[in-house]
Amino acid sequence: MGVLALIGTRKGLFVLRAADGRDRWQIEGPLLDTWGVYHAVVDERDGTWYAAANHTTYGPTVQRSSDGGQTWRRSRQIGLPEESGLVLNATWHIEPGLPEDPETLYLGGDPGVLFRSHDRGESWQVNRAILDHPTRADVWIPGAGGLCCHSIQIDPRDPGRIYVGITSAGTFRSDDAGETWVPRNKNIVADFRPDPYAEVGQCPHKLLLHCTQPDRLWQQNHCGVYRSDDRADSWLRLDGNGLPSPFGWALMLDPDDPDTAFVIPARSMEYHYGPGGRLAVYRTTDAGATWESVSNGLPDQSWTVVLREASAFDDESVYFGTQSGSFFVLADGDTWLEAARHLPTILSVEVTSWSA
Questions:
Q1: Contacts (Cβ under 8 Å, ≥6 apart) of 5
Q2: Which domains does the chain have, with CATH numbers?
Q3: I want to staple 12 with a disulfide (CB 3.0 to 4.6 A). Which of 33, 102, 221, 300 is the partner?
C-alpha cells in the first residue's frame, strides 16, 4: 500500500505518490491551476477529493472531484446571509464527517464561519450559532491570515461533540451538533490582549483531537503549545521545557500513541522563520513533559516557515511542506527526506493510503 499526498499551494494542487515505502515520490500537477488551495483532503468514506479553493477573480468555493482529480465541480449555495453584513473572504478547511454520517462535511472559512453540507458538498448551510455568537462583535479580531475557522475536530464517539479553532477568537466546543457553542480556553494565554486570560479572544493556530483518546486535544497556539485531557475544559501549557520558541503553526500527532506529538517552532510573531534561522522539528513522547529536536536531514540554514495546514500524519510517518516549496517526509523515524522542492508556497498537506 502506497501513500498519496495532496499538497495545496498558492498556484494549485499538487499530487505526490509513493508506491513502495516513502523514499521515492512521483509528482503530478498542478491541478486547479491558478486557484489558491488552502486545504485539500481525500474523503476516505467514498474516495472523493475536496479542496477549499480561492481565486482572485472567482472568489472562494469548494471544488470536488470524484475521479481522482481528473475533473472538478464547484459547490453551489456557499455564502453568508445578507443580513449578517459579512462576506465570505476565503474557504479554509474541509473536514469529512464520521463514517456513520456519509454525506456530511464541514467547512471552515473567513470571517470565522462554519458551514455544514448534508449532500457531499453540493450545497452548504452556515452554522448560525457561530455566525451569531454573542462574543463575535466585541472580541473576535482577524489574525495575519484573516478571521479564519481553520480547525474542525469531531469526537469519534459522539457526533454531537465538535470543536473548532478560530483565529483570533479561540477554541469553542459544541455538545449538541452545533446548535450552541461554548468557549473552551481556560489557562490559555493571549498576551496581546488587555486581559491575557479572558474567556474569549485567544489565537489557536492548530487544534487536533487524538483519535484513540478523544478526551485529549493538542493545540499549537500563538502563545504556546497546550494539551487538554478533559475535552478542552482546561489546558496545560507545554512549551517551557525544551522548545526554543512557544510560537508556531504546525502540529502533528502519532495516531497510535496519544503521548507523542510534533511541532515546528517559529521565532516569533514578528519573525516567521525558525529560531536561529533553522528549520527544526521537535517531538515529545511523554505528553509534552519534554521535547527533543528531530531534525536530521533538514537544511542547516533556512528562513522558511511551515503554515497551519501544511503538516500531516498517518500510521507510519509525519509530513510537512514549507513556504519555500519543499515537502518533507520523516523517512525512518529519525531522518527527514525532501521528497519535493521548488513548489509554489505550500499552504496545506494531507495524506492518505493509495493502491499502486
A1: 15, 16, 17, 25, 312, 319, 327, 349, 350, 351
A2: 70-332 (2.130.10.10)
A3: 33
